[in-house]
Amino acid sequence: MTRVELLWWDGCPSHPEALADLREAMDELGLNPASVEVREVADDEDAARERFIGSPTIRVDGRDVVPPPEDEAYGLSCRVYTLRDGRVSPVPDPQDLRDVLRRNLEHSA
Q: What pTM does this model have?
């Protein structure tokens, strides 16, 4: 069973869009979109415990779908992603989500 998590912080407004993109990708791949574990990161202690580098963070089986640099600090901040076409976005590229989920499915089969 694939574990899919979305971690978010209330200071960033982009988590609903990220959740919608994630659930759409899961549905397309035959995964249950309702199984996403959605968790709010409320303070710096939560951020450190969750290894949270910003909102939204999406993990599949514990691995960030867009791995951050090794020296990225944990804390309450908004993440910035780069889409495949080079534009900056507050959410991961939907195709990146599909690719990570697909690879995970292939490896667990």
A: 0.94
Domain parsing of the chain, residue ranges: 4-108
pLDDT category at 85 given cuts 50, 70, 90 is: very high
Which of 67, 46, 59 lies closest to 3 in space, CA to CA?
Answer: 59
Distance from C-alpha of 77 to C-alpha of 10, rounded to nearest angstrom: 10
In angstroms, rounded to a whole number, what is the distance separating the alpha carbons of residues 79 and 74? 11
The topology under which CATH files domain 4-108 is: Glutaredoxin (3.40.30)
Confidence at residue 109, expressed as pLDDT on a 0 to 100 scale: 65
Which residues, at least 6 apart from 82, have a Cβ–Cβ distance to it below 8 Å? 88, 89, 93
